[in-house]
Amino acid sequence: MKSLTNEQRTTLLESIRDVEDFPKKGIIFKDITTLLNNSSAYKLLMDHLKAKYEEYDLDFVAGIESRGFIFGATLANMLGVGFVPIRKKGKLPYTTIAEKYSLEYGVDEIEVHIDAFRGKEGSRVLLIDDLIATGGTAEAAVKLINQTNAKCVEACFLINLSFLEGVKKVESITNTYSVLDI
Length: 182
Ligand code: AMP
Known about the structure:
Layout: H1 6-15, E1 17-20, E2 28-31, H2 33-36, H3 39-53, E3 60-64, H4 67-79, E4 82-88, E5 96-102, E6 107-113, E7 124-132, H5 136-147, E8 151-160, H6 166-171, E9 175-181
Parallel strand pairs: 3-4, 3-7, 7-8, 8-9
Antiparallel strand pairs: 1-2, 4-6, 5-6
């Protein structure tokens, strides 16, 4: 199903656990492990994403470390396209390109292998992560994809913490889609 009913959205929302004060006081952490170990909720989500994205003529799905790997690799396999991991600095073994982004305090950096989107020029890439908060990570990931010879055609999130307005940052550089807006 390309679009979800309100009932299906509620099923997904209820499968995600809120953990208060993790990793620090005042943060409500959206714990997706309870969705992953609920086979019907996980299947509902992935069937929805497959139905939506099979019309996009994608060449790759790229996932952001680490929860984006789970949804991204599953979706890539369902769509019959390759999966590309976007990782924190220093984790990928081959030659990489990197992009810095701001955190609340300081900066962080993500990387992708220089030849990850091999194949035709202008490969169509879907970026996926579990959650968008301030949007800094996703913005850096889109820039990273576009710095290679590939094109990020959309950034997809399971959860959008809409009060943080991170989507605004990302939608100036690519299309965005969130399954659940909170
Ligand atoms: P941001 O760059 O601020 O959009 O943060 C997004 C990244 O941080 C994603 O990879 C999320 O998995 C993680 N993240 C941020 N806030 C939360 C939260 N409340 N619950 C779970 N993960 C979060």
